[in-house]
């Protein structure tokens, strides 16, 4: 019996040791597993915290971006409205430019007409000057012819006075009738009377008989000597 128990005791003890060994090993493994679990759990928690924090930051950024987007939208609307205003102003200015262009065209036309009229005026003016010089030369010729006529008349008067008394009386009567009925010309402003050909009569030429001109106080012109 004792031998049996001594034989059985180490068997049982060996089983216990084995069980104890496994228990210790499994406990150690559990401890290690728990430690690992705790460690990984804390890492995961840290990561979750980081993610939450990052998420909060991203949400605040997102809110900032949304606010900027809304302000930018407002600015875009402002810009669009001012662009519409500028466009209407541009169309108004274009209409004014078109009107100015038409004015310019008519100005060019009128300017061309003006140049043409100016050249016509110049032509007429040079012709007028030519005619005036012609008139002056003709006037000078006329005066010389009249002085020739006067000298001829006076010489004929001398001849007639030296002839018979009959013809002399006839000559006197004719000269007196000539002095009353001779037509002379006066001007609006002057106090002289002139021959019809006198150059002083360019501005005004009022016909009057020589006798009435004298009775009204007019005196003969020294240039044409009427
Ligand atoms: Zn005169």
* Strand percentage: 5-15%
Q: Strands of the biggest beta sheet: in what spatial order?
A: 3-1-2-4
**Which ligands occur here?**
zinc ion
Please report the distance between the alpha carbons of the first and last residues: 204 Å
Q: Can you count the helices?
A: 3
Task: Report the principal-axis shape.
Answer: rod-shaped
Overall pLDDT score: 86
Q: Give me the count of strands.
A: 4
Radius of gyration: 70 Å
- Following the backbone from N to C, one meets helices and strands in this order, namely HHEEEHE
Q: Which spans of ≥5 residues are poorly predicted at pLDDT below 50? A: 1-5, 164-179
By oligomeric state, this entry counts as: single chain
Broad structural category: mainly alpha
Task: Describe what you observe in this structure.
With 226 residues, the protein is mainly alpha-helical. The chain has a domain at 181-226. It has helices spanning 2-162, 165-181, 210-215; strands spanning 183-186, 192-194, 206-209, 219-220. The chain has a 4-stranded mixed beta sheet with strand order 3-1-2-4. Strand 1 (183-186) and strand 2 form a beta hairpin. The radius of gyration is 70 Å and the shape is rod-shaped. Residues 1-5 and 164-179 have low confidence and may be disordered. The site of zinc ion has 6 residues, from loops.
């Amino acid at each position: 019996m004792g031998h049996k128990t001594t034989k059985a005791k180490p068997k049982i003890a060996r089983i216990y040791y084995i069980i104890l060994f496994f228990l210790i090993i499994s406990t150690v493994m559990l401890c290690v597993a728990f430690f690992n679990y705790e460690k990984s759990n804390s890492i995961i928690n840290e990561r979750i915290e980081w993610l939450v924090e990052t998420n909060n930051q991203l949400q605040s950024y997102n809110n900032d971006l949304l606010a900027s987007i809304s302000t930018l939208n407002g600015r875009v609307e402002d810009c669009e409205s001012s662009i519409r205003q500028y466009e209407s102003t541009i169309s108004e200015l274009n209409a004014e430019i078109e009107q100015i262009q038409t004015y310019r065209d008519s100005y060019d036309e009128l300017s061309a007409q003006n140049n043409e009229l100016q050249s016509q005026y110049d032509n007429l003016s040079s012709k007028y000057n030519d005619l005036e010089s012609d008139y002056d030369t003709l006037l000078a010729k006329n005066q010389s012819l009249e002085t020739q006529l006067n000298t001829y008349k006076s010489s004929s008067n001398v001849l007639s006075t030296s002839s018979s008394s009959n013809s002399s009386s006839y000559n006197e009567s004719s000269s007196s009738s000539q002095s009353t009925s001779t037509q002379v010309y006066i001007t609006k402003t002057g106090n002289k009377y002139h021959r019809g050909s006198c150059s002083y009569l360019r501005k005004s030429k009022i016909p009057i008989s020589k006798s009435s001109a004298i009775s009204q106080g007019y005196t003969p012109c020294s240039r044409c000597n009427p």
